[in-house]
Write a structure and sequence with these properties.
With 489 residues, the protein is of the alpha/beta class. It contains 9 helices and 34 strands.
Length: 489
């Protein structure tokens, strides 16, 4: 393109480019680029001119060339597809009539802060520096799938999509992207799906104060996302599912103060993920199911009131559970398992309590597990379970057996003291002692010589039978409880 073909506005940019200087077309620093369609030729740049400048523009020895423009209207499509741009591209607060196409391009840096665009196509982009769409308003999809960015990706306070609409195509596509440092999207507002599945981020992902709206769909799709440090999403607001299945977040997944909503579906899916710490501190009650099946967590910080009515916790492992609460406040969660009774969640909760040395809470959880299991058994098996529970609490309440024995011992001693049974052989019988006679009846492995020497009659004979049968039941249940405790050890 000959220099003589340029408009005055384009000439300013052409002459500033080899010097690395900026050109500011704004009449006011607060110019709204959404009104850029009405800007005149004094602020208009043709996309073909910018393309020629970036691919084969003039350079000057001793200076670093670069495109720096504020407040311009860009007409036509900026087509840099598969092109190599060795200079940074900075088009701030600009109005684009068509979505730029940078698919497969190799670029130094791309900065579009505060601009208004109908979309951005940059799949498989190679960027040596940062890519910024901070505070941009982009109505169409931002395609960065498969991009490789040496620097960070910034989308702070960006507004993507159209309010009230959920387009078929995701509004932000970072799936299978490789980001050399961080993804920073604080305050991002996305009216449509955000895809990050298969992405690799060397640093952190920051979605603090973000709002992701995709009712009835997946608001954040980040399956097998690999993060170098943390995923911060404090005060995140979502309408739709958050899918982090298979993600790898070695430090913290922070959803403190978040509000997750997907009524009738899954609000949070983090199955098979590996996370250092999962935080839902001070979050609103989750609207929709939570799926942590097969997740591996070092620390799980979720207050009981945050959990929804439906959960999937099978094979979910965690070492520490905070805040530390009595077992009675944690057990209702296990009743909400969608698959019904599963032993593993009870065992995991028991392990968490034992990790912090709360053995009493661990026993309470084990007792609750056996009672829950009993409800799944046939009636005849449930009856034996009721006996073990009432007698010794399945071995977790041994003092209950002592109480039963004491009551029976006092009853038998008083009854036989008032009505002494006759001796079978008076000349050979030892002196009658109602206490030791009752002990002989109750304890099958102890023999004080009283039971064999005296034979009660009438109702007292039936009382002796009751004491013998009850003693055997108590002895059997105590033995079963001790065996179960030893097996757990």
């Amino acid at each position: 393109m000959e220099i003589t073909d340029l408009t005055p506005a384009e000439r300013r940019v052409w002459e500033a480019f080899p010097l690395g200087e900026g050109v500011d077309f704004r009449e006011d620093p607060d110019d709204d680029p959404a009104q850029g369609g009405s800007w005149g030729p004094e602020r208009t740049l043709r996309a073909e001119v910018l393309r020629a400048l970036l691919l084969d523009g003039p350079v000057r020895d001793g200076r670093i060339a670069g495109l720096k423009v504020w407040g311009a209207r860009v007409t036509g499509r900026l087509d840099l597809k598969y092109g190599t741009v060795g200079h940074p591209v900075r088009l701030r607060q600009c109005h684009f009539e068509e979505a730029p196409d940078l698919y497969g391009a190799h670029i130094g840096a791309l900065v579009l802060n505060d601009s208004v665009l109908p979309g951005l196509t940059a799949g498989s982009l190679r960027a040596e520096g940062v890519v910024r769409i901070t505070c941009c308003r982009i109505t169409g999809p931002v395609r960065l799938a498969g991009a490789k960015l040496s620097g960070a990706f910034f989308a702070n306070a960006a507004q993507l999509g159209r309010p009230g609409e959920t387009p078929e195509e995701p509004v932000l596509q970072l799936n299978h992207a490789d980001v050399g440092t961080d993804v920073l999207a604080v305050g991002l507002v996305a009216h449509g799906r955000v895809h990050m599945n298969g992405a690799t981020v060397a640093g952190q992902v920051n979605l603090n104060d973000a709002q992701l709206y995709a009712p009835g769909a997946t608001a954040l799709h980040a399956e097998v996302l690999a993060v170098g440090t943390d995923l911060h999403a404090m005060r995140l607001r979502t309408r739709g599912r958050v899918n982090l299945a298979g993600a790898r977040i070695p430090r913290q997944l922070n959803l403190a103060h978040a509000r997750l909503s997907n009524p009738g579906g899954q609000a949070l899916r983090a199955s098979s993920c590996v996370v250092g710490e999962l935080w839902l501190r001070d979050a609103a009650p989750v609207e929709g199911a939570v799926n942590l099946r097969g997740a591996q967590l070092e620390l799980l910080h979720v207050p009981p009131e945050v959990w929804p009515d439906r959960v999937r916790l099978d094979a979910c492992s965690y070492r520490v559970l905070t805040p530390h609460l009595p077992a009675e406040q944690r057990l209702p969660l296990l009743e909400r398992e969608e698959l019904g009774y599963l032993p593993y969640p009870y065992e995991q909760l028991t392990t968490a309590y034992r990790t912090v040395g709360d053995e009493a809470a661990a026993r309470t959880v084990q007792l609750a597990k056996l009672r829950r299991h009993r409800r799944t058994l046939p009636r005849y098996a449930r009856l034996w379970g009721w006996v073990q529970d009432a007698a010794v609490g399945y071995g977790f309440r041994p003092m209950r057996a002592a109480a039963w024995l004491l009551v029976l011992l006092c009853t038998g001693t008083l009854a036989f003291a008032l009505h002494r049974p006759p001796a079978l052989k008076p000349s050979e019988a030892p002196a009658f002692n109602p206490l030791f006679y009752t002990l002989d009846l109750l304890l099958p492995i102890i023999d004080f010589g009283q039971e064999q020497a005296y034979a009660p009659r009438g109702w007292y004979q039936w009382l002796s039978y009751l004491l013998i049968a009850t003693g055997w039941v108590l002895a059997t249940t105590i033995a079963a409880g001790v065996t179960r405790s030893l097996n757990r050890q």
